[in-house]
UniProtKB/TrEMBL annotation:
Keyword set, alphabetical order: Cell membrane, Membrane, Transmembrane, Transmembrane helix
Protein name, per record: Major facilitator transporter
Organism whose genome encodes this protein: Streptomyces chattanoogensis
Subcellular location: Cell membrane
Species lineage: Bacteria, Bacillati, Actinomycetota, Actinomycetes, Kitasatosporales
Any one Gene Ontology molecular-function term assigned to this protein's record: transmembrane transporter activity
């Protein structure tokens, strides 16, 4: 373990006193901001340069997310076999290279929608491997007792990127052309790779394959080992179930949310933008409040409280009526509560998961959890769209708002609420056998 600091620092000085974590955090932050630029620039390239149809723009969005379902599980097995730090380097350089092809192809007038499909899929595939590998590298650059603080830093950068990223991208696009903005995005991944390269590996996670004794094992047997560990570990089972139900409901909400605001509440485009901004700001507030919430009630009840916040937000959305100022305030505050709950839940459960998962199962466990949790996203979108079409957006919002009680009840009846501190879940990572968390 590098950068070991015996005294627990304040939140703002945590990364300053841990050079390796600081480099990993910078790499992740730059990568996340780069992804936010791509999120806006890709469809704009398709529309403005390639005259793409609505279905082709939708295909771009699908291809960017498809690798999470196609490769999520196998990526976890492979990351456990490979050197996670090397995976970060390779995926960053590949994303920089393929994104650099877009402005080059546009300059020579050879860019086509088919090439954009391929590049989008390649970038999405690299993101799958990067996201899994960086969590594995994290456990080698900070002490286990510092995982909560480290994940809080990482979640902060993600929340800030999601809140400010679209604005930064829009500002960039007003100054330069879309292909040039993609070139800037490519440079962001190159900078991320340089930060990763500067990490000085000291532990087995970042400097060597996880478990040399399992190199001859089949990929299928390693994949089953990861799923078996989740099935036999109480916390991970509840983590997957609660996370999947929350994602399904949230994606169902987003499928009808903007139609609900525009048509049922008759809000203007500017007002809708303010509501969305309030939700984005809620994620940042959640990160900032998390430390006090955990100190006040403990990790487990912090997770319970986060799900209760989501339920309260869903109920507020369902009760709003009309375009009056109070109705707008209710919708904005409800959306803020829902988004504020997400980082509190994420930081706590990810930190606990990293604490209880053996090193040689880290990639597989992370990938399997993400497959189960993120696999609910497209299902939720389909359900939300179907309900909105069949019964209308307001009844759908009411059903989803009530549905957010489900993850709250699940956390209340789960053993998660008994976890007070990160030390309460201490399990030796060297143990290959599965263990129940305390």
């Amino acid at each position: 373990m590098d950068d070991v600091v015996s005294a627990r620092p304040r939140w703002w000085s945590f990364a300053v006193e841990r050079p390796n974590f600081r480099r990993l955090w910078c790499a992740q932050s730059v990568s996340v901001f780069g992804s936010q630029v791509s999120l806006i620039a890709f469809p704009l390239i398709a529309i403005s340069l390639l005259d793409a149809s609505v279905s082709e723009v939708g295909m771009l969005a699908s291809l960017e997310r498809a690798p999470f379902l196609l490769f999520g599980l196998i990526a976890g097995v492979l990351v456990d076999r490979w050197r996670p730090r090397l995976v970060l380097l390779i995926t960053d350089w590949i994303r920089a290279a393929v994104l650099g092809l877009i402005p080059a192809a546009a300059f020579f007038d050879v860019l086509s929608i088919e090439w954009l499909f391929v590049i989008t899929f390649a970038v999405g595939s690299c993101t799958v491997f990067f996201d899994i590998a960086y969590q594995s590298v994290l456990t080698s650059v900070v002490e286990s007792g510092d995982l909560l603080m480290a994940n809080r830093w990482l979640e902060t950068s993600r929340s800030v990127a999601e809140m400010s990223g679209p604005g930064v991208a829009a500002g960039l696009l007003r100054v330069v052309s879309v292909p040039v903005s993609i070139a800037v995005d490519a440079l962001s991944f190159a900078f991320s790779a340089l930060f990763v390269h500067s990490i000085r590996p000291a532990g087995p996670v970042s400097s060597a394959p996880r478990d040399p004794s399992t190199r001859d094992a089949s990929i299928w047997s390693e994949f089953k080992a990861g799923l078996r560990y989740i099935r036999e570990t109480s916390f991970l089972r509840w983590n997957a179930a609660i996370g999947a139900s929350w994602n399904l409901l949230y994606q169902a909400l987003l499928a009808v949310f903007f139609v609900y605001l525009a048509r049922d509440l008759d809000l203007s485009a500017t007002t809708i933008a303010i509501v969305v901004l309030a939700g984005s700001f809620g994620a940042v507030l959640g990160v900032l409040a998390m430390g006090r919430i955990n100190k006040w009630c403990g990790l487990g009840w912090g997770i319970v409280l986060s799900m209760c916040m989501t339920s309260a937000g869903g109920i507020l959305l369902a009760t709003a009526d009309g375009s009056s100022l109070p109705a707008i305030a209710i919708v904005g505050f409800g959306f803020l509560l829902i988004n504020a709950s997400q980082p509190i839940f994420n930081v706590n459960v990810i930190s606990i998961r990293q604490m209880i998962t053996p090193d040689h199962l880290m990639g597989r466990t992370t990938a399997a959890i993400r497959f189960l949790v993120w696999g609910a996203l497209p299902i939720g979108a389909l359900i939300g769209g179907f309900l909105g079409e069949a019964f209308g957006t307001r009844p759908t919002i009411v059903v989803i708002g009530a549905g957010f009680l489900i993850p709250a009840v699940m956390t209340l009846i789960s053993p998660i609420r008994r976890i007070r501190d990160i030390s309460d879940v201490g399990i030796k990572k060297s143990e290959p056998t599965t263990s129940k968390e305390g």
